[in-house]
Every structure is written in structure tokens, then in C-alpha cells.
Design goal:
With about 190 residues, this protein is mainly alpha-helical. It is built from 6 helices and 2 strands. The protein has a single domain, classed as Four Helix Bundle (Hemerythrin (Met), subunit A). It has a two-stranded antiparallel sheet with strand order 1-2. A hairpin with a 2-residue loop joins β1 and β2. The protein starts with a helix and ends in a 9-residue tail after the last helix. This is TIGR03086 family metal-binding protein.
Length: about 190
Amino acid sequence: MTDHSALLRPAAAEFLRVARLPALTAPTPCAGYDVRGLLNHLLYWGPWLAAAGRREPYRHDVTEADSALVTDGWFTTLEKQTEALVDAFSAPGAWDGMATLGSATMPAAVVGDMVLGEFVLHGWDLARAAGVPLTCPDETAEAVRASAVAMGEQARAMGVYGPEVPVPADAPALERALGATGRDPRQLR
């Protein structure tokens, strides 16, 4: 597994740039989520991911469906959480060994790639909702694509990814990453 920690900070900055742009009620390409729902999802799972990166236990007392985290000050909370994720997965050794996410133990590099994927994929979802482009270097998009391909079958079985969307092999790296996760890169909204 590869340590992609150097890709996190720029991806996080671009994610935060687009996160504040769309109206909370705007639809997203992420199935089942409007912007408020997608932000709630991110705010719910971010502490789990950060704790996994720090090798600390974490649990919520409520489910994602029962949480309402997009309240006054949500963007400040998202900024702090994003910084905590970057810090956790930029620490020496964060991508080595095993980490626990909820009740599952997996390679820490898989969790780190999940964080990078959250920034890029959900960043794209939010950018589409706002009608703006997401800037993503090819190296970052390729790391997200490789992770999506490696986890694809399992992620589709769990309902995390939709069916793969065919994308030409010579398409930009971000479009190939999106297609691997079931997102149609041609979708404008």
C-alpha cells in the first residue's frame, strides 16, 4: 500500500473551497444526498476517520440518519475536522500497520485512501452541486482511482459505490476515478 499523505493537504484545501459554495438544498450527484445530507455525512464520519488515523477508539451515540450536524457554524466545524483528518494522516507512520474504523480493522493505508477519496469524490459532488469545476491533480486522481478499483467490488456490495460508469481509457484521471466509483463525470448536476 502506498502512503498518499502528501496528496491530502492540497485535496483538503480544494474540498473546503467548494464545500461552502452550493446551497444546502441543492441536489448532488451522490445518490440519496442533497448538499445538507452530504455535509451531514461528512461531519458524521470525519471523527471516525480521524480517530482511526490516530489509532484511537471512537463512537457516536446516534446513527448518521439520526444526526443533524449541519447547524450554525457547520463550515467552521468542517474546517476543523478537515484539518484534524489531514493532521492524523500526515503524522509519521499513520499509513503503516492496521487501524480500526468502527468495528472493522483494516490496513491504515486503506483508511488514508478513504480520506483522500472523501476529499476528492465528495468535493466533486459538492462542486457539481455548485456548478463549478473541482481542481484535482492527475497524481491525486490516479491515487483515488486505484483505491476505488481495489475496493470497488466490496464498496458496491456495501452500497458505497454505484455500478461502474464506463469512461474512455484516455479520459482525464479524475473522470476515470469518478467512473470507477459509479459517478458519471459528464453529469452536470
